[in-house]
Amino acid sequence: MQAFDTDILIAGGGLAGATLALAVCRLVPGYRVTVVEAFPLPEDPAPTDYQPSYDARSTALSWGARRIFEQLDLWSAISRQAAPIRHIHISEKGRFGVTRLASEEHRQPALGYVADNRWLGLCLMDALREQPAIRWLAPAQAESVTTLREGVRVGIRQAEEAFTLTSRCLVVADGGRSGLREDLGIAVHQQDYGQYALIANVSTERPHGGTAWERFTERGPMALLPQVSGPEPGHRSALVWTLSPEDLDDVLALDEAGRCARLQQVFGWRLGRFTRFGDCHHYPLSLITADECVRPGVALVGNAAHALHPVAGQGFNLALRGLMALVEAFRFARDNDLSPGDLTVLSRYRQQHAPDQQQTIGFSDSLVRLFGDEYPVIGAARNAGLVGLDILPAAKHWFARRAMGVTGGGSARQPSDRDREHWQ
């Protein structure tokens, strides 16, 4: 049998790759894990001295994501800087229909949470540095893949040095513009929405009260997600604003006061006056799905496998559930003396995650299309739908469970009822 340099090589040490590395070491001990990350690791990853920045990018975490991080013994750290979403308010500009969701209706302390990306990264790195089974190569780049009889050979470049590593399984976690996915010749299906997402932190005159606001407009959806850490606690929210290319250019050309005024026109006065508009980031929106998520010795996860519209905040949460499905496939391999890269093993990951992936992508895409249709009849139906969701308990419960990431979409359900309860 061929000797390999590592058992599992994870190409990409971002949130998805780092979470997978920790999950493998804590939930399926015994594997040697190597992480190849393009950016240098922080000199001191301990989060004890963390000072939140007003303009830190953030991620919405579903209730299901919290359960996953609890399984990894990471939630107690993350929760120190995570804002609970206790209410969700969904509306459409110019119409009276509204849907309101509340955590107490579902006997939970929160429907979800919002955490700074940098804080998530620091918590992960603080936990990962205690794992002797993980080898980090950073900054380094995984540049090429050659399939072997029982694994893969990966070309690595670190500084001026080029070398190869053999692995029983390669996990591609290098993002939506995955170079390794391209090198493997895995095609993607891409559907451009013709829109951009503008990301910024904003402050409001009135406190958000733990409410996430989803506002659909004739130009596209916007969301305000509550934040509690950093300056102006209770008054700062993360804005995700969907704009056409022309509207994006108009907003970026404005000064801070002009951006606040433009946002006020679209969102309204539920939170009083917008008083601050932070640094802007933006990126084009499209639905991207890889035609293959597994091959012998290779698995795709996170944005390398699928990238969603941010309208429902499900991208990272879907990725987390996929990671847990892959971890369970690795557990099956270990318990049955199989290679983690065996196609039988990786096919279990694909079969468990595919229904969840299809349902979540379909849910997000349908929201974009439904609220992007300008026909009056469709608009009236949307309005009736929002009213119906607010007054029909069964429909509202279904929608809330999907928003909370507890839909039972098929991922991470294989091993036991206990794991199924925790990971969904």
Describe it.
The protein is α+β, with helices and mostly antiparallel strands and about 425 residues long. The chain has helices at about 15-25, 65-70, 75-80, 115-130, 180-185, 245-250, 255-265, 315-335, 345-370, 375-390, 395-405, 415-424; strands spanning about 5-10, 35, 60, 80-85, 85-90, 100, 110-115, 135, 140-145, 150-160, 160-170, 190-205, 210-215, 220-225, 235-245, 275, 280-290, 295, 300, 305. The model is unreliable at about 370-400 and about 410-424 (pLDDT under 50). The chain has a single domain (about 5-190, about 285-424), classed as FAD/NAD(P)-binding domain (3-Layer(bba) Sandwich), CATH 3.50.50. The longest helix has 30 residues, at about 345-370. It has 12 helices and 20 strands. Helix 1 packs parallel to helix 4, helix 8 (about 315-335) runs antiparallel to helix 9 (about 345-370) and helix 10 (about 375-390) crosses helix 11. The radius of gyration is 22 Å and the shape is globular. Helix content is about 35%, strand content about 30%. The relative contact order is 0.17.
